[in-house]
């Protein structure tokens, strides 16, 4: 990767989530990092959730609020004395408010290699289109 003098390579660590209420489960809660892209027809949201399996992932839509939640546990059992431990286990949690331009009935979710991809299609009326001008 070639970088100019004014660019830096930054490593993002898992960000701890400040829960609005007390937690009933022990362990940390993380806010997954996301990238959001928009086209004329849809919004795509990519959420980084390493170690989360599909059966431990929940995508919920309620009252125009999209909730992402997942859990990753320490499934690797090793023997010997720990020398260094940097990988953190815990839960992921993040919410998004959806606008009226999203067709909530057609939202699609896929999990691959620790990345959750949500496709949020726009309703037909929100899709930009060119209007033909009639002559006469």
From TrEMBL:
Tell me what this protein is called: Molecular chaperone
Q: Which Gene3D superfamilies match?
A: 2.60.40.790
PANTHER family assigned to the protein according to its UniProt record, in alphabetical order: HEAT-SHOCK PROTEIN 20 FAMILY MEMBER
Q: Which residues form the SHSP domain?
A: 24-136
Which species is listed as the source? Desulfosarcina widdelii
Q: Which domain of life is it from?
A: Bacteria
Name a Pfam family for this protein.
HSP20
State the PROSITE patterns in the record: SHSP
Q: Where is the composition biased (Basic and acidic residues)?
A: 7-16
| The family this protein is said to belong to | Belongs to the small heat shock protein (HSP20) family.
Region annotation (Disordered) maps to 1-31
């Amino acid at each position: 990767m070639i970088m100019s003098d004014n660019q830096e390579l930054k490593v993002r660590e898992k960000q701890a989530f400040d829960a609005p209420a007390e937690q009933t489960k022990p362990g940390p809660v993380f806010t997954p990092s996301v990238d959001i892209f928009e086209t004329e027809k849809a919004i795509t949201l990519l959420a980084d959730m390493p170690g989360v399996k599909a059966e431990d992932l929940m995508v919920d839509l309620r009252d125009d609020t999209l909730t992402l939640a997942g859990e990753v546990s320490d499934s690797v059992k090793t023997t010997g004395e720990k020398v260094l431990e940097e990988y953190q286990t815990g839960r992921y949690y993040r919410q998004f408010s959806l606008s009226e331009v999203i067709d909530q009935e057609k939202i699609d979710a896929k999990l691959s290699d620790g990345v959750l991809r949500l496709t949020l299609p726009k309703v037909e009326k929100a899709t930009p289109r060119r209007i033909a001008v009639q002559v006469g």
